Amino acid sequence: MATIVFCSVNKTARTTARRCLSSYSKGLACSGESPLSCTHSPLTTLLPSTRWFSRGSSVRFMSHGTAGRAGAGRTRRGALLSGAAAVTAAAAVAGFLANANHFQRAEMATKVSPISEEKEPEGEILERCRGFMSPPVTDIGELQERKGEMRTRMEMLIMQTQADFCKALEVVDGGTFKVDRWQRNEGGGGISCVMQDGKVFEKAGVNVSVVFGYLTEEAAKQMRSRGKVLKGKDGKLPFCAMGVSSVIHPKNPHIPTVHFNYRYFEIEEEDGSKQWWFGGGTDLTPVYINKEDAFHFHNTLKEACDKHHSQYYPDFKKWCDRYFYIQHRGETRGIGGIFFDDLDSPSQEEAFSFVKSCARTVVPCYLPIVYKHLNDSFTEEEKDWQQIRRGRYVEFNLVYDRGVKFGLATPGSRIESILMSLPLSARWEYMHKPAKGTLEAEMLEALRNPKEWV
């Protein structure tokens, strides 16, 4: 796979990307001259129905500089790092209100508006698997035998999501993901794709897991606390859980951290009946507020939600703000996105269609923001603030994140993959408080008082 080294050809690469995406949006063919060509680039393996830029958004492949940031009058200590140096330089939530239900369920509308949802790719399972980062966790022969079942369709979706996102990030960074397959003795396994110390990304991880076996009493108790009444046979609850999750920690403090997770859970009860539900979401954690970026990110998610119901985005946006809340700090982890869980209505097909729409936004909601800020200059002080914000990220994941809790409570879980979301470096300063009127104080205010970005 050809790569681009942005420290020397960043402007050319971004110009090519802009040309390709412009042609792509008009339905035209590109020349195919570069790794960003419409024919081969992972940036353009998106579905034709997906747009890179939200309507009304001013987010573009902009020339580098200080777009969206304060200019005159802003003073910083330390020397500026610019150009190539800037690129290569270094669940349960206790945050719900006390008088609110600890968890809630994603209630789908009983009537879903007709949408022109593109059908899943046709053809043999084997042919589709050739484009993945690795063969699926489940044996391909088994997937072919039950290709109509939801477990197979979801596994194919999460494998495709992993491949699309990893390949898009490789084009940006010029690096290569390490593909690490692992097996779980109790049943199933996963594929962890990790890139460390790249030119753009300090740590980028995209993990797929497909596990099955029996729920532990602790895990079953967590499910019951959310209103799930589960009746096992002889104390055993056979289950299957699968999902794709990713956390990206860029080097440049003006490129936000992003996280997404989409998952499916299935449990067989004593009488042989099955309970199933979906969950997931995508959220953004910037170090500094950029309103253009926030609008683009949230509007991309909103358009995906609106294809299914106009209330999904506002509901799931609020849920996201509540879920990613660091109670002991009194602030959210980032500027949110969407989050939902226990999605089991009105039908399995319609719930899966919604999850599929959301999963297909992970590249177009994030990559334009990355390209926009590739060459933004930053100071040592801004880098320190990024490290402090990463410390908050660590605090949330280890104290509150339900996925981490479930993973650590599940026998045979792979700790390296569960803790993949943690950054390589972070910082904790005693009694740190941003000065009034600074961009850091502006960021903190937005975290303490979540805003509507769309």
Mind explaining what this structure looks like?
- The chain is α+β, with helices and mostly antiparallel strands.
- Helices cover 36% and strands 17% of the residues.
- It is built from 14 helices and 9 strands.
- The longest helix has 24 residues, at 150-173.
- One of its GO terms (biological process) is protoporphyrinogen IX biosynthetic process.
- InterPro entries: Coprogen_oxidase_aer (IPR001260), Coprogen_oxidase_aer_sf (IPR036406), Coprogen_oxidase_CS (IPR018375).
- It catalyses: coproporphyrinogen III + O2 + 2 H(+) = protoporphyrinogen IX + 2 CO2 + 2 H2O.
- Homodimer.
Summarize it:
The chain has 454 residues and is of the alpha+beta class. It has 14 helices and 9 strands.
Which structural category do the helix and sheet elements fall into? alpha+beta
* Total strands: 9
User: What would you call the quaternary organization?
Assistant: single chain
Report strand order across the widest sheet.
1-2-3-4-5-6-9
Distance, first to last CA:
37 Å
Q: In the residues, how many domains can be counted?
A: 2
| Gross CATH architecture of the largest domain | 3-Layer(aba) Sandwich
Q: What level of helicity do the residues show?
A: 25-40%
Shape type = globular
Q: From the 3D structure, determine the CATH topology of the largest domain.
A: oxygen-dependent coproporphyrinogen oxidase
- CA-based gyration radius: 22 Å
Low-confidence stretches: 1-103, 108-116
Mean pLDDT: 78
Instruction: Supply the CATH class of the largest domain.
Output: Alpha Beta
Helix and strand element order: HHHHHEEEHEEEHHEEEHHHHHH
CATH homologous superfamily label of the largest domain: Coproporphyrinogen III oxidase, aerobic
Q: Characterize the biggest β-sheet.
A: 7 strands, antiparallel
Strand proportion, as a percent range, falls in: 15-25%
Number of helices: 14
